[in-house]
Every structure is written in structure tokens, then in C-alpha cells.
């Protein structure tokens, strides 16, 4: 019997470590609530995780086994369990953040003292960090070249679920409050393998073919919404990829097949950012690209608070920030807009945004969230150049022309026509007062802030801001 230690791979099928644990006998699946990890959690994410764990436990119980649940220090719990059941190997799927790697080396050392091996598997990514490099052997810092190699490389097939599961029961699953978390403010979508598979099936059944056209349209809401599931591993990457390959094989047109490839490109972005985090763990708190003179962020508390609350007077920004509070999720295009607004229009340090997203997003994962923020702040790998600053009004007009998305999340604008919404910044105080008295005036002037942000970045680059 071998142990499989689940962490953010809350599934029984297409799980490399679990399949290895069950290869020659019963697999003993384990989940440990580790307070050192939980202190980085947040209500939406932990709620989704608990939901997913409940289903995983049911899955094992339906097959005559159980998920062994414990709370405490894995460096003590895992060796004790291994010794008690005569286990000589504990399997797990590699984590790529600094925190995960430190935890895993401590556990490996503790197990080793009892003669037990910790075997980690590259399950979460198709191609593990280090496996895709430049011709000079360096990790990639430019996505496009990374993508070409990623796309052309063969992918593994999904793993089967293990045949036999050990029936070793630990604790009951704790509740959110027992773990020290409040109920989430947002409605959290269901977690677990069934919900993940349903999302995947419905996406590859149609919307994937329109991905290229509709991925930037937040009102259409036609992206896969698999991000919380990839975050918690309720569906395996090989399963997702195999479904996209099947969709490509039966694509009704060349354009539809291209849309599938566009979607696969997003799966590769996720892997790219995991590689970046693996090779540059400091990006969690530091800029990937340091500017010579350092960036002097403006960091106005009142402006940052208005951004968090969705009260900036820029309708697309406020709609996004309110979607985040209501659903613990935000559309990708809108994430880009709100992140640009915070870092360029408000000239606030990206870390304020990252912290807020970390608290509120159900799909927050360090690699993607950090990658997204540093992209928007022009401090990241392959980031938006500092001089390309989104105009929040024209972004709203281009990506939500009928203001459908805006009206859904900003009820103060519910009865206002799209043209008026998209020219909100140009209206007089009296006009604004007469059409939507509850909705705020823009808290900053975009054109002025654009100039100031350019000057801020030029100074950071050691250049004369007036040139
Ligand atoms: C400021 C900012 C913060 C972000 N924070 C996160 C985060 O914490 N967690 C997260 O998963 N994604 C994050 N993203 C990336 C992206 O917004 C989400 O992955 C996407 O919106 C999730 O919705 P979806 O599953 O419908 O995406 P789809 O468009 O259906 O994409 C499919 C999958 O590809 C991956 N993906 C898509 N876009 C990106 C991207 N730009 N970078 C990396 N992976 C991507 C995700 O795993 C996603 O589930 C962030 C983007 C920005 C700009």
C-alpha cells in the first residue's frame, strides 16, 4: 500500500501521483489541513476546496475506501500514518511555489527519518518547469516562443483512477468556521470533479469554437470558467487537453479549429506563469523587472478603496470589481482593465491589487495572479509596455458596446442607455445627476493620469519625464 497526499489536486481520475500510489495495490489517499498553508487561504477559496473535498471523499467511500483526513503538521502526520500502515512511499504532485517547495522538502526529510520516500510527480502541468527552455538552455521570458515549443510537444494521456482504495478514516471534514474563515461574501460555484467535468463538457460542446470571437466579450460570458477547477485540480490538465483535441478533430470549420488552438494557448499561459514562478520565486513580492530608479507609486488610500469597492466612476472598472465581490470571479478582459486602471490611472502599486484578488478570487493561484498583475503593471515577464495604457472608457465601449455587462453589475446604471454610459466621463455634473444620481463621477481624469503615469515610469527608468 502507498499513500497519496492530496493538496491542490482534488480528483481521483487523471491524477499522476494517485495513479502511481495505486499501481501495485491499494492507494491510501490523504488530505492534511495544514495551518501554515491555511493562513494564506481566503473564504471563497477554502469554501470551494471544502466542497471539492466532500465530493472526493464520497467518491472514495462509494468504492469501499475513504479519504484519510487530518489537521496539523504534515511533517508529523504523514510519517506516523506511513509507519502505522507499513507504507514505504508517499506520493504527491509537485507544487511550484516557494511555500509548496519548502513544505515538501520538510516533509521529505521527516519521512526519510522513518525510512519512507516522498515521490513527487509532475501532474499539474503538461511540461514541468525546466522542460521547455530557450536554445541557450534558459527558461523563457517571452511567451510566444514558449508557446510554440509547448504546442508542438507531445502531451501525456489522462491517467486512470486507481482500482483499490484503502479504507482508513481520519477526522470529519472541518467546517469553514472551524478552520477560522467567515462565510464568503460571494456566491461560490460548486466545487468537485462532477462540476468540473460538466463545465468542460459544455464548453467543448460549442463555446470553444467561438472562443476567438467571444473571449473578450464579458457580457457573452462564453469562456470555459474552469479556472477554479484548474486551481484546485478537480479536473486534470490531460483531461482538458484531450477534450480540446477531440473538439479540434471535429471542428466544423477552419475558424473553429483555430479557436480551439487559441484556447489551448491560454492553457499554455497558465504553464508559462508557473515556470516563471518556479524559476523566480521572488516575484510573489518583488517586481520581475526592476526599474533602475524604482517606481514611485502614488498609492492614494482613498483611490485604492474606491477601486476595491467598485466606486471609481469608470463603469467597466466598477462592474468588474463588483462582479468579483458577487461571484468571486471576474472575466479576463475586465481583469486586465481593472488592473491597468489601478496601476496606471491610480498609479497604485500592483501588490494592492494582487492582495485584493488573493482575498476575493475563487481561482486565485500565485502563478497566474502574479503573472496577470505584473503584466498589467509593466513590471512582469513579457508584460504590457509601460507606455501602452488602456483607456478605461474606450475599453468599455469596445468590449461591452451595449453596456450589458456594466448594467448587470452596476444597478445604478441599469436604466441608462449605452451611449450615455460610455460617455460618463464627458457628462456635466448636472447631466450625471439627472441620469444616475447614485453613481459616482470619475474619481480621476484619465488623460491627466495617463501623462502622470508615463512620467512616473520614465523617472523609474532614469529618463527625463519631460522628453
Ligand atoms: C490581473 C489578473 C489576475 C489574474 N489572476 C488569476 C488567478 O488568480 N488565477 C487564474 O487562474 N487566472 C488569473 N488570471 C488569468 C485569467 O484572467 C483567468 O485565468 C481567466 O479569466 C479564468 O476564466 P476562464 O477559466 O473562463 O478562462 P478561459 O479563457 O476559459 O481560459 C482557460 C484557462 O486558461 C488559463 N488562462 C486563461 N487566461 C490566462 C492568463 N491570462 N494567464 C494565465 N492563465 C490563463 C486558466 O487556467 C483558465 O482557466 C488573471 C489575469 C489578470 C489580468
From TrEMBL:
GO BP of this protein: nucleobase-containing compound metabolic process; response to stress
Record's keyword terms, sorted: Chromophore, FAD, Flavoprotein, Lyase
Superkingdom to which the source organism belongs: Archaea
Keyword Lyase on entry: yes
Site (Electron transfer via tryptophanyl radical): 297, 350, 373
Positions bound to FAD: 211, 223-227, 263, 266-273
Cofactor(s) this protein requires: FAD
All residue ranges annotated as the Photolyase/cryptochrome alpha/beta domain in the record: 1-126
Matches recorded under Gene3D superfamilies: 1.25.40.80, DNA Cyclobutane Dipyrimidine Photolyase, subunit A, domain 3, HUPs
Region (Disordered): 427-448
Name the UniProt record assigns to this protein: Deoxyribodipyrimidine photo-lyase
Organism: Halosegnis rubeus
